[in-house]
Amino acid sequence: MAPVSRLEINFCRLLERCEVLADERNPTDWRFKKYVQSLEDMLLDLRNINTCQPSKDTLVHYTSKVDFLKRLIAVDTQPHNSPEKALAHEQLALKPVPDDKAKEILLKRQTKAIRDVREELLESRSSVKTNASDSKGLRQRVPGQGGGEDFDAVLRYHNSMQEKIAEEMVSLAQNLKQNAVLAGHIVKKDTEAVQKSVQSAEQNYERLQNEQRRLEEHLRRSCNCWIWLMLAIVFFVFLNMVVFMRVFPKR
């Protein structure tokens, strides 16, 4: 594993904090914008450091995450419940996201934006109905009908957006399930490999014990053979000396 610099550790911590602030969906929090600006400066320093520099793929991943946070800031700067903000949300959904965390943040923001627009449309429709019931002139009835048609069109659009978000959430859940199943298979294979290694180690240990016992027995037998051989030689030499003394007595 490559060494990680202190700058990269601080960058990852600040990036995680920015993701938490983005998930809270509070556009009035001034810290979010300041933190993202600090992330840009730290990312530039990471590209220029000489020691413990991250890999190119890691830098590309960091850059995509910072760009995603900058796009969120651009959406938050739009007026609340304005067509420009709805268009910015739609454009943000069309662009790729760096990872699953960013996708989750994007889905939550889109859901909240659709809910806000729906609440505003429901309030406007209720006010239009109230005005239409109080008015008796044809001039006041016609705008009421046009407002209802506009509301139905916008409602159909947002229903389609909700269906798209639901499909993306289902796709995300399927991906998570597939990753969990794949991780389970990997863990199962690793467990089987560890069990086989343990069994092989036990078998090797038993073989080693058997070989050690055989070696000890062999050494003991060879030692006994040498002892008996030395005793035989000593006895033979002693017998020869006795015979020599008998054959050649001292004068």
What key attributes describe this structure?
251 residues, mainly alpha, 6 helices, 86% helix, 0% strand, protein transport, transmembrane, coiled coil
Largest sheet: none
Mean of all residue-level pLDDT scores: 77
Helix percent reads over 70%
**Low-pLDDT residue intervals, each spanning 5 or more residues:** 135-147
The rounded distance between the terminal residues' Cα atoms is 95 Å
Output the radius of gyration: 42 Å
Number of strands: 0
Helix-strand category: mainly alpha
Q: Which percent band covers the strand fraction?
A: under 5%
H/E topology pattern: HHHHHH
| DSSP summary: helix tally | 6
The oligomeric state of the chains shown is single chain
Shape type: elongated
Biased composition (Polar residues): 124-134
Keywords: Coiled coil, Endoplasmic reticulum, ER-Golgi transport, Membrane, Protein transport, Transmembrane, Transmembrane helix, Transport
GO molecular function: SNAP receptor activity
Subcellular location: Endoplasmic reticulum membrane
